[in-house]
Design goal:
The complex is a heterodimer of chains A (183) and B (153). With 183 residues, chain A is of the alpha+beta class. In chain A, 44% of the residues lie in helices and 15% in strands. Chain B is 3% helix and 48% strand. Classes of the chains: A alpha+beta (183), B mainly beta (153).
Chain lengths: 183, 153
Amino acid sequence: MSFGHLPEMCYDAGIEDKRGATMNQPTINKPTDILLAELRDLQAQVLNHQQSGGAFVAAVNAVEWSNQPAEAIRAVIELALNIEAVRIARQLAEVGHRAYPEDAWLKRATVVLAPPKIIGTSPARPGQKATMLWLQDHAHEYYQQWVAVRDGVFLGAGETRQGLVEKLGSIAHERGTVITRIV
Amino acid sequence: MLPLGPHEFAQGFCYYADGWQSDSNSRLVTTAIFANLAGLLVETTVIVDTGALWCILSPDDFGPLVGEYGPLEAFVVSLNVRGIRYTGQIYRVPLTLIADEGADLTADATVFVPELYPDETWPHPNFIGLEGFLSRIRFAVDPTQNLFYFGGV
């Protein structure tokens, strides 16, 4: 089973192709260094708005990545992330990790780039609305300062987050104490 | 109001502010908790922004989370934030949407933390973005009461 071909995706809408992982696409067999140079050029064009992100995705899709060295897969993942093509970066990480399970970078990439995962819930702690209302009404008085508010009660302000935390003491670390910079 | 519960569309809701100080546009500003594996919490304000790719956390807010039990980091990326391209690291961070009623929601989120020069201050708010968090939850907005509903899928 080939896992080197990636589903086509609409770059702009981020829509995953539902036709499955194996598609009849031409596979471009170029030396790796030429392939990477072309993708870097394409990425630069995307960043300069001379080319669409879809063109980059299409170029990546045309390659059998399971046959490429791990360093090449890593390089293209970074290229994709820098043009915010996160979904193809995510899929490349998965392909790369399957091809090179001992590669720690690719394994870490599959974790960090994975879709968000719900890990738990906890009962609400009322006070959030009161804090937001205070910020809405008073934040302008502390522009470019750090403020701490708890259940709608102003606790203090400071020029730095660390300084404010030190001034507040243990309450700075308690659930319900919101510390934010007014920007 | 929408009903709340584990089998409903939403499990909780929070109150949001319409805007943020330096931003003349309408925004959805609420609070969230970023955590590390040791249970250390950073509770701060965030802008919910479906136009943001990742969640974004200021280096000052992220600082307390690093260390032995700090978030798993991946690699350096660049990200366009409000027209300025920043370089930074992306991390996997437990992120909790704080409910005023119902139940909080915690997800393993992908968070971008910019790298700044020593004399540079992060001039933007924190963000909860689409691929970083929102793409795996249900959410709805009630603008008549400034309520942001959310629930896990």
